[in-house]
């Protein structure tokens, strides 16, 4: 056996313990350290270590646990330095300690034990194999205690019991030298399964199998909640619990424990279980928290909702008007935040008029006495006589009230449901629509439970700050920082308004306006106390769940011996992600890939954006970090248009060297029913008597007590795209808006490329008629200058 490692190995492939020892030896030496090594390497033309490189290395001493030597070795590795080259440089340097670090140890562990989960009663086997210059001996430990009679490379416990769960490690001796293996965790599940008793776990390796499902629970405040799930597999599965679709902080164990539950722990729970190549979900279960009479008497001031429901609509892909970009990001972020507050959320993108009206109808079905209802809309809009209109993506040019949805009409219908809180967050323009000659006339009841949060002031147009990627609008950029605050909703919005007022880019240009008749201290964080009618609450949950049922993951076996996993994820209530992953590929295959095809024409899927190797390539920007890797991804939007069950084809393409690598295909037809929002049939004909089409009489919360800013602070911008968080993983796209009168701002490569208007209609065809809205470009250049200056002031 050679005394040194393979000289042809790139130093970037050296194992971490070896690199650490070499760096420690170089960092602590003053005359034979990394600086002298840099000088030696600097004389070699092929590596080109410059004085700037050495300066960059020296700056590492300013970092916590920073290593100049590690930075130098990294630079050398990137430029092709091999272990042989490094060994020669260290010999020239004369640092014998660093040279010895590259020598092959007298003992090497070749096979490390792997963590795993298995069922009680099965056989446990952990393996550790090593080689040395003399015979090696093994000793297994559980924690710090020796495992009796376990002095062989394989630790076997047959059968395994619950008491055998824990952490194991193996010590390997070779003469005077010894090494410890890596720790291996063993999780033993107490469950009866259909596997044969005494079955060796090797037959289950590499596959996740769900063994324990969580169970629904009904608890009182103060009692302990324990949810348990479990899967078997090698390596050991990872767990992440979710409540109402949102990951639970520190909920990363098989058992979710909450010692003393409160009302806000009420919700729907499920757990995501994953390994290096697989991902699955448990069933979603209900946890219902009730109040004892003693508890209710102890907190008489606490207000609660019988349920909390939110409808979020983001319209961006307009057919006859400028397209938007921020609504998608805004709806996605608000969905995750509202779910943390136990809201049942329906989030939809790009709805036509009939789809919007039917979506509102379904939203109203979830409302009843005591419910908190929240409607968020982002897109084009206008305001006439104090009544706000939301513009569908299929609105004609020009549009009128008959083509749009009146917010006050929706409020009237919500009032009939006797809700306890009605919140409207309108992220749209509020300019007058001169093409709409109808006289608004909606009669609202006088109730003290209405809150309007407008992203801009009355009779103000709106703009976006356009970037090359996806970012929040100005309103949601600040709203999402406050939405989880345990304060009255009007107090939350007041603080958002203050935050927006301090934003240099839109100071004096965009101001949040609040209109409210809310008399009680109602907050979005209020806990849920279900109504007396359990049947009604269950019916509501069942109705909401219909729009959020994902198809189960599938394992597809093909005659050629290949096996693939077909998985699904929801980006929005009407956007489904399908991904395929090769689980098993026979050895005689040189290539194996599975893709999906033959979708319904109703979905209008672009074949060029299907079956891509990265989520971003197919338009999945917001969910990409949550998807498994090494798959082919396809994004299906506009599920609300689906009239029939979703049927598509999975095509497996393989090649065999024995067949000159000519492609061979196998196909399977898959039917997943109607996924997500498709179950609600929003494509159906409009029911005109439910979601009113026009307003009838001026009587709205605009006459209620008002928290709005003074007129001189009113907003003349909307939907400003601002980089509130790192979206560097998002693919650069076109500008958010296309200005019909020519481009606004520069066209260079700067991060913020354009400042563009958020239109509510294009220019009027009549020369004597103003456009919708009235647009003035006097402030555009000024705003762009203020914004750029604010960025320059933030630079160090």
TrEMBL record:
Gene3D superfamilies per the UniProt record, alphabetical: 2.60.40.3360, 3.40.50.1460, Death Domain, Fas, Immunoglobulins
Coiled-coil stretches noted in the UniProt entry, renumbered to this chain: none
Source superkingdom: Eukaryota
GO biological process, one term: proteolysis
Alphabetized GO MF terms: cysteine-type endopeptidase activity
Ranges for domain Caspase family p20: 306-433
Pfam families, alphabetized: Ig_2, Ig_3, MALT1_Ig, Peptidase_C14
Domain Ig-like: 107-181, 197-288
PANTHER family: MUCOSA ASSOCIATED LYMPHOID TISSUE LYMPHOMA TRANSLOCATION PROTEIN 1/PARACASPASE, MUCOSA-ASSOCIATED LYMPHOID TISSUE LYMPHOMA TRANSLOCATION PROTEIN 1
The protein's name in its UniProt record: MALT paracaspase 1
